[in-house]
Specification:
Length: 169
């Protein structure tokens, strides 16, 4: 089966959408490959955004949308989401890149499992979320969210070491 950007070009809707999401997930990790811990933690923008912070944020967004909303399973965040809404972007001194990358990979696996068990037309099961959302919306939103942050990470990576050819396979 021919693929472009990791997604089948003639597959079913769910397969193509999942392929695009996996492409941007892989791109996000590729943008961090070969970087020192210092550079992964380094911010070059006024907001304080870092490569590692973006990966951590995306891990918790995956958990929120797929694990909590699609699979309707509780997740105990290691921070108070309401009191500290930026905690998912912040890398604490005791957090290592390996831990953050594993958190992201694990979150993506939970997401893949939740998506595999659902239909795109299924409504979100989490009663705290509007019943107007369906799984299709979540997948499209996560493609947008991951691609947008991969773009941010691409610019940060270019600022750090000049590399620009990532994610175009």
């Amino acid at each position: 089966m021919e693929k472009r950007y990791g997604a089948p070009i003639a597959g079913g809707e769910k397969e193509v959408l999942a392929g695009f999401l996996d492409h941007y997930r892989a791109t996000m990790l590729e943008l961090c490959e070969g970087m020192s811990e210092k550079d992964l933690r380094r911010s070059l923008v006024p907001s304080g955004t870092t490569l590692l912070g973006i990966v951590k944020h995306l891990a918790y967004v995956e958990i929120g949308w797929f694990h909590e909303n699609v699979a309707n399973k509780r997740y105990e965040y290691p921070f108070d989401v309401d009191a500290d809404p930026e905690a998912d972007f912040r890398i604490e001194d005791d957090e290592t890149p390996e831990e953050i990358f594993e958190l992201y990979r694990s979150a993506c696996e939970l997401s893949r499992a939740a998506l595999a068990a659902a239909s795109l037309d299924d409504p979100i099961l989490n009663p705290e979320r509007s019943r107007d959302y369906n799984v299709r919306w979540v997948v499209v939103h996560m493609i947008e969210e991951t691609a947008r942050h991969a773009g941010h990470a691409d610019i940060i990576r270019e600022q750090l070491d000049g590399r620009t050819e990532i994610g175009y396979r």
